[in-house]
Amino acid sequence: MTFFRAAAAAVLVLACMALPLAAQPRVGLDSRMSDLQRAVDSGQRDSVAAFFPRRGSWSWRQTVRSRRGDAVVAVGTWRFSAADARRAIGERGPLCESFEPMSGGAGPFEGRLGMQLSVGLPDRRWRRVGRNRFVPPDEPDHSRIFVQWRREEGRWLISSFGDETLARPVAEGRVVRTDEVQRTAPVAPPAYAADAEWYRQNTPVVLDGYRYIKYGRPRPLAPDQIERIGTKDGVPVYAARGDGRAPAVIYVAIDASNFQPYEAPHGRSSGPCR
């Protein structure tokens, strides 16, 4: 009996000693979240990239609201490999605008992650909900604007984040840049995206001032389902028939019968993300 009492006492002592250790990761994560806020506010993309995983993947969820902001129009989720983090958040990357800080020029929509992270520093600290998820201090626990973390090799790194934007307006009367889809360019002879460097590198495609990013897999489409709306470096670009004026999704031909969809989650680009 004495042995069992001693063993029980030892277990109790070990459990008590473990409590501060269990609490330590939580304190470390709060500090890590504050460090992320300062890194985004600095505008240094290399510093921000250091908060992303070195292996595996991470995800971005974007909620698109109506122009008035009072209704959810769409929600999309994109997954990126660890190796793609710096490119994705960098200049003209698909997540460039998400990491534009409050001071970053022509006023990003207030739901963008960078805006929410940098506004009100140093006093505005994000609120922890659950073990490893943070939301802005004035947002509910289920906010669509969030940062979620995971442990990798003893460090807290971003596993996913979410932000919001407004539905894009129809763009008219713009001067087309040389790297954009050209709506009036001829297709003779046609090229295919599978042979293009911008396609292989997952570079966004610009149409009427809006950046479209690749999502999903190529799919076969019949000629009566789509209409050609222009070309990108000689590659035919299509939209769903009847949707060519302001398409939510465009398609580039990767061969004679298969097409890769691109979606415009952010709307109009600005600042260094152009």
A few lines on this structure:
With 274 residues, this protein is α+β, with helices and mostly antiparallel strands. Helix content is 22%, strand content 28%.
Structure notes:
With 274 residues, the chain is of the alpha+beta class. It has helices spanning 2-42, 45-49, 85-89, 113-118, 197-200, and strands spanning 57-65, 72-81, 127-129, 133-135, 146-152, 155-166, 205-207, 210-214, 219-220, 226-232, 235-240, 249-253, 258-263. The chain has two domains: 25-166, Roll (Nuclear Transport Factor 2, Chain: A); 193-273, no CATH class. It is built from five helices and 13 strands. The strands form two sheets. Strands 7, 8, 9, 10, 11, 12 and 13 form a seven-stranded antiparallel β-sheet that branches. A hairpin with a 2-residue loop joins β10 and β11. The termini are far apart.
Low-confidence stretches: 10-27, 104-108, 170-178
Instruction: Give the second-level CATH assignment, the architecture of the largest domain.
Output: Roll
Based on secondary structure, the structural category is: alpha+beta
Q: SSE string, helix = H, strand = E? A: HHEEHHEEEEHEEEEEEE
Keywords for this entry:
6-stranded mixed sheet, 5 helices, Nuclear Transport Factor 2, Chain: A, 274 residues, 28% strand, 7-stranded antiparallel sheet
